[in-house]
Design a protein that fits this description.
By secondary structure, this protein is an alpha/beta fold. The chain folds into two domains: 26-371; 398-490, Helix Hairpins. Helix content is 26%, strand content 30%. The chain contains nine helices and 38 strands. The strands form four sheets. It has a 14-stranded mixed sheet with strand order 1-3-7-11-15-19-22-25-28-31-33-35-37-38. Strands 5, 9, 12, 13, 16, 17, 20, 23, 26, 29, 32, 34 and 36 form a 13-stranded parallel sheet that branches. An eight-stranded parallel sheet has the order 6-10-14-18-21-24-27-30, with no helix packed on it. Strand 37 (304-313) and strand 38 (322-325) form a beta hairpin. The longest helix is centred in the last third of the chain and has 29 residues, at 462-490. It comes from Dactylosporangium fulvum. Keywords: Membrane, Transmembrane, Transmembrane helix.
Amino acid sequence: MRRPPHRLTAVEKRVWTGFFAGIETGLADRRRTVRASVLADLLARPVDRTTHPRAALRLRGATVVGVLDIAHTDVAVPVELHDCTLADPVDVSGARLAGLHLVRCRLPGLQARLVDVRGDVLCTESTIGGPVDLRDARIGGDLDLDRAQLRNPAGNALAAARLSVGGSLRATELRTAGELWLGGAQVGGNVLLDGAVLDNPAGRVVGGDRLRVGGNVRAGAGFTADGDVMLIHVDVGGQLWFVDATLRSPDGFALNLGGSTAGSVWLGFREPPVGRVRLSGLRVDTLFDDPRVWPAELDLVGCTYRLVMSRAFESGPQPRGPSGLAAVGVRSRLDWLRRSPDGYAPQPYEQLAEVYRRNGQDVEARRVLLEKHRRRRATLHWPGRFAGYLLDGLVGYGYRTWLAGLWLLGCWAIGTAAFTRWPAPARNPAEAPERNPALYALDLLLPIINLGHDTAWKPTGTAQYIAAGLVVMGWVLTTAAVAGLTRLINR
């Protein structure tokens, strides 16, 4: 073992001895101060692993004074600080580390940009009163922020743009004041935010533009976010989970998943989100939601999914799982589509109708497409709206062709009664067929079929106006019915 320098205090000599032996140095309450420069000098020294195979900095209960600066240093041994207080920020920017553990520590900041850690980085239960900078860092193992407190209200509580984590990013029960910035980060495992409470009401509370996650993203079990949750163009290999979550951003986006992809998305919030929820451009295999907590403003333009399911979620402090399929009819789904804050758009209706058709629910699919035309009608000028109302009333825009049959039956009954009340004289009595008001009315209504009655009689007075009306209605109804049937056959 190397002999400690004479300038070290007795406490620092104990740390020196414990370093080369690889044992934890626990310090008493009265004698616990260690200079950061001593620790930095110790970590910067080359260590012969054959002579000191267990060498490591394992320190518990110390008060570290000065800046612990090991930036751009190759540290071959693990660094583990437990229950320590650091008066100044820790700087490991650009360093190469075997592992970094700050467990239940208090420090004013962590500068770790471009750090390369072969193992895990732990800040479990630590309180960090300034920014944690992990931009462009590479971590071979896990990044563990469980039950940590990160406070930087004026900026980024965690700046982790382009961070690469080989394992998982664990941040369960994390507390933050400031933004959690993960833009361009890559996580090989899961991102776990269950029970986290994130606070940045003046702006973004989570920014994850182009975040890539190999596993799941879980933000449930009481997850609370005050501020914009912006997960734009995120790529999640598994589940994107917001069950039992509370999202609040009254003047912004409670949740923005625009352009993201995931295997499945679970939106079983604890309560309806306060603020806008944007799923535009979201591409997902299965979308799960809960009608009881649908947001007031929901943007679904460009959202594509193979299956949408509504489930009732269990309550409780633990992550809530599906407890059974809830009955959500097409009428409720149409209300779901109407929550768009930007007005009418055709794609969400076509997407839902396609899902219904794929599941063999043709009646529901037609109901959705009919509603699409009715919503579009409200955006037209009065001639278009008039034509729309006419087509809707006659054949339901081609999705209710049976309406044309009802109209024809009604007109036939009116014509039969009218021609019984006001019989028309024959044009040529010698060639006129036997008088039959029902056949005469039917011959006027059917423009293609000739029953030999429409040209045999010449109505007068009121009957001639009724006859003209029947001819017009016959052409309109027949044309509408043929158009509707053609659309049905094409589908």
